[in-house]
Design a protein that fits this description.
It is a single chain. Helix 12 packs parallel to helix 14. It contains 14 helices and 18 strands. An 8-stranded mixed β-sheet has the order 4-5-9-10-11-13-14-18, covered by helices on one side. Strands 2-1-3-8-6 form a 5-stranded mixed β-sheet. It is α/β, with parallel strands linked by helices. The N terminus is likely disordered. The protein has a domain of 248 residues: Alpha-Beta Horseshoe (pyruvate-formate lyase- activating enzyme), CATH 3.80.30. The structure holds iron/sulfur cluster. Iron/sulfur cluster binds next to strand 7. The site of iron/sulfur cluster has 9 residues, from strand 7.
Length: 355
């Protein structure tokens, strides 16, 4: 399958920091969020935005007949208060990195990047970004989990592992939201807590503005430029991501490399081999904490929506369906996974490579 997309913009020119004033020229402000200090702080960074008040964020986010794909071209920001803590137990299909107490949070819904394979396009009816400003309720819910006894003896002594950038890219939004900085402060006094911050961002300035934390695993998703150009729209190039990874290591961050999802582009073996060569020559791999590898896979329900909303080479590929999850046929997917594991095994022990 070739994923060459002639509509793709010139990615060499894509900045690694997003111009938020242009991205969020409209802000929907839920009544309950209007006086919240986080909402005020965010609005202060968007002085030119048109502010539209609403009673309930769902009136905007769950409107019928939206086009999440078109909305990505001029995303609106929706500031709201969640009526329940947004902490969830990881589903069995989630990559848990061997952690028995695996949770994720979802204080932000949707992402400034625009990956054609992103499950969020199948999950949410809108391409706009919702930010729940009452993070204090998420922190309280996690404190409760931290104080609870583990549900089984196998969980005794296990840290609480929480993925905080799950339905979004929180680091890419950090200059606007400041949530990562708050998470780091929160985690500092909670030794039993480990946070995973997954990102495709490559803004070294954002990273340098944050305190380095032993509690945080910075999980950087790497893809070949062929994949980035074809389907990971608005994301930084591979060289920019590698420069960012290098900077993160120099600053002392725990860095995880994520080769997930691996996409079956034309001549994928050569493309991914060349990428691993570039990664290994750019980074001191002995200082990488661990790596994850996964082929593209997606739930039946999400893919159905994605095909309707965004028919493209990734969504319309003739995947196989197993137990409600679409994936590449084994003869396509398995060799790519083997290639990734074999290449990573050249530079790190097998037990540090997660599938
Ligand atoms: S960076 Fe991640 S969350 Fe954002 S659009 Fe891409 S796949 Fe989705």
């Amino acid at each position: 399958m070739s994923l060459t997309n002639s509509a793709s913009p010139a990615f060499a020119d894509v900045p690694t920091a997003v111009p938020f004033r242009r991205a969020f020229s409209v802000v929907y402000l839920e009544d309950a969020a209007a006086s919240h200090p986080r909402a005020q702080r965010i609005l202060a960074k968007l002085p030119d935005a048109e502010i539209i008040r609403c009673r309930d964020y769902r009136e905007v986010f769950h409107r019928r007949n939206q086009s999440p794909v078109l909305q990505k071209n001029a995303q609106a920001l929706i500031l709201a208060v969640s009526d329940r803590p947004r902490v969830y137990e990881g589903a069995p299909v989630c990559q848990d990195f061997g952690n028995r107490r695996f949770y994720y949070t979802s204080d932000v819904m949707n992402c400034i990047f625009d990956c054609e394979y992103c499950y969020l396009q199948g999950m949410y009816p809108s391409g706009n970004i919702v930010v729940f400003v009452n993070s204090e309720d998420t922190f309280t819910a996690l404190d409760k989990l931290l104080s609870e006894d583990p549900v089984s003896s196998a969980e005794a002594g296990e840290p609480l592992y929480v993925s905080i950038s799950y339905d979004t890219d929180l680091l890419a939004l950090e200059p606007l939201l400041g949530f990562v900085s708050e998470w780091i402060s929160y985690a500092e006094s909670r030794p039993a807590l480990t946070l995973e911050l997954r990102t495709k961002s490559a803004s070294a300035a954002t990273l340098r503005a944050l305190p380095v934390s032993d509690h945080v695993i910075l999980a950087l998703t790497l893809s070949p430029d062929e994949v980035i150009r074809a389907v990971e729209h608005r994301t930084p190039s591979l060289s920019a991501r590698l420069a960012f990874a290098s900077e993160a290591l120099s600053l002392g961050w725990n860095v995880r490399l994520c080769f997930d999802p691996i996409i079956a582009v034309h001549d994928a073996a050569s493309v991914y081999n060349a990428m691993f060569d570039e990664v290994f020559s750019a980074l001191p791999m002995e200082r990488i904490r661990d790596a994850s590898v996964g082929q593209f896979r997606i739930s039946h329900e999400y893919l159905k929506e994605m095909r309707r909303r965004r028919p493209c080479a990734v969504t319309c590929y003739p995947y196989e369906l197993t137990d409600g999850v679409y994936h590449y046929p084994p003869e396509i997917g398995d060799p790519l996974i083997r290639l990734a594991v074999d290449r990573l095994s050249e530079v790190m022990p097998r037990e540090r490579i997660y599938l």
